[in-house]
UniProtKB/TrEMBL annotation:
Organism: Streptomyces tardus
Source superkingdom: Bacteria
Transmembrane annotation, as ranges: 42-62, 74-93, 99-117
Region Disordered, residue ranges: 123-170
Name of protein: Uncharacterized protein
Transmembrane helix recorded as keyword: yes
Amino acid sequence: MTAVVLLVEGAVLAALFWVLAVFVQRQEMFLDGIGPGTIALAARGAGALLGLGLALCALLVLRAGLGDRPLGRAVRIALIACAVTHGVLAVLAVALVGWGAFLVPAAVLGLLVWTLLEHTPPEPRADASAPGSPPVPDAHGSGSPGSKASASDTPVPGVSSSPAGPSPVA
């Protein structure tokens, strides 16, 4: 779902920047000495970079989703950068256009955060057979599966094993 939304959004934004470039060229206006051709070229380049960046993020999300594996560090960094960009776009949209335009980047931001949380790497678990790790007690309380020792056979520091109780300290 997230990959499809990012791909569609990348195509729409690239087309929007292309339309903006056409409008700039037809206006024949200069911006502080910069000609309309340069501004149109910059708009087309920005649209292409934004569209390709969103397509790359869509490809990374699709690859992680189809492989059903946790995201790597580089993929997480790319998706976090994409999420931050959408957060900034959402703020700009609500400030410049209104709450209706805010919904699209905010929804994509939510999908990106959900994707990042859904594909988190699992916590490393301590292996019971690893050297140096304490034995894991089985159902009978013993340290190893084949031992016949009970929990009362294990000495506890500071507690005497005699039936009369601990000996007085002189």
